[in-house]
Write a structure and sequence with these properties.
heterodimer; A: mainly alpha; two-stranded antiparallel sheet; 7 helices; 3% strand; elongated; B: alpha/beta; 44% helix; globular
Chain lengths: 205, 133
């Protein structure tokens, strides 16, 4: 009521109706204090038509699309030299179904090893007197594990490192370590994208 | 291919300090139904023989903490364990000479391939079968 007059609710325009429908799709989190409501919109692409469950056909289509993305991503990793044939050996070991999750497990171990080893090498190169034999041993370890997972760029970076610690060249080793780390970080990022896609595919099944 | 010879699986010892290589090789060996035990260095491997354990095949890395692969192979032979097939495995360029001098039967460069492992296991099976005849 406005004063003595009854004011009827205005008729909503189609635009307003659409806005109201959009607002209803926002999720309300009652656990937060009333004055700090947090709204998280449901992404439009994942929102099913109002009132209907997600159809198996839609899920299957999403899975196919994700598999195509994954295959394209792996193909690009091979083309850019991030991976070599050894990675295909690992995939073969997994593909017959007897070792699910094998590739992600072994690549995860490689990533952990590489992070630890590059940190140790950096520590050795920081010392007043560099123990090049230890640097040699660590680079050799990383070369071996990168070869075992097919991480070709990391393996090649380890091979390039060799001449600098053979010559006991600290500055050369520092530079080689920086290059090695770059190749490792790039490879790690590619692997992480691969596994995220695999997880999304798994979620569709 | 089955690794069973009249109910007896091929017993494989992996001597390896790097988890990546251990996982890859053990996954390959499981394809052939091998019974797998892992030692993280040469000293652990020798200790297993001292405890009376028996193996049909050993896959041994070269550079490991505590005791290297070639040193472990020499000690295993010194214990009289000459029936077991010993395979040296390494990514090092000069590893083959070190392994063969220590008495290894074969050397395989890393990374290992499934076909190579299959051939070795088949060789062990054939030998066990011949020994039983």
């Amino acid at each position: 009521m406005v004063g003595n007059r009854i004011v009827s609710a205005p008729t909503l325009s189609p635009r307003s109706l659409r806005h109201r429908r959009r607002c209803r799709s926002f999720e309300f989190r009652p656990s937060l204090p009333p004055t700090t409501y947090s709204l998280r919109p449901t992404p439009r692409r994942l929102r099913p038509p109002a009132g209907s469950p997600v159809s198996p056909e839609l899920i299957a289509m999403a899975a196919v699309e994700l598999k195509n993305q994954l295959n394209a991503h792996i193909a690009s990793m091979f083309a850019a030299g991030f991976l070599d044939k050894q990675f295909q050996e690992l995939q073969m070991l997994q593909d017959d179904g007897s070792s699910p999750g094998f590739v992600s497990e072994v690549v995860g171990l490689f990533i952990d090893d590489a992070e630890k080893i590059t940190g140790l090498i950096a520590g050795l190169l920081d010392q007043p007197v560099v123990d090049f034999d230890k640097v040699d041993a660590l680079v050799h370890q990383l070369k071996g594990s990168s070869a075992s997972v097919g991480a070709q760029r990391v393996k090649l970076s380890c091979e390039q490192f060799h001449s600098y610690y053979e010559a006991k060249n600290r500055d050369g080793c520092v530079m080689a370590l920086a290059l090695l780390r770059n190749e490792f970080y790039d490879s790690r990022s590619k692997f992480q994208t691969m596994f995220q896609l695999e997880q999304q595919i798994e979620a569709c099944s | 291919m089955t690794s069973y010879v009249e109910g007896s699986p091929v017993k494989a010892l992996i001597v390896e300090d790097m988890a990546v290589d251990t996982l890859v090789l053990s996954t390959m060996l499981r394809k052939f139904h091998c019974e797998i035990i892992v030692a993280k260095n040469g000293k652990e491997a020798v200790q297993m023989f001292l405890e009376g354990k028996k193996f049909d095949i050993i896959f041994c890395d070269k550079d490991m903490p505590v005791m290297s692969g070639p040193e472990a192979i020499e000690k295993i032979h010194a214990l009289g364990e000459t029936h077991v097939k010993i395979v040296g495995v390494s990514a090092s360029d000069n590893a083959q000479e070190a392994f063969m001098s220590a008495g290894a039967d074969e050397f395989v460069p890393k990374p290992m391939k499934l076909d190579v492992v299959r051939a070795m296991i088949q060789e062990v099976i054939n030998k066990k079968t011949n020994d039983m005849v």
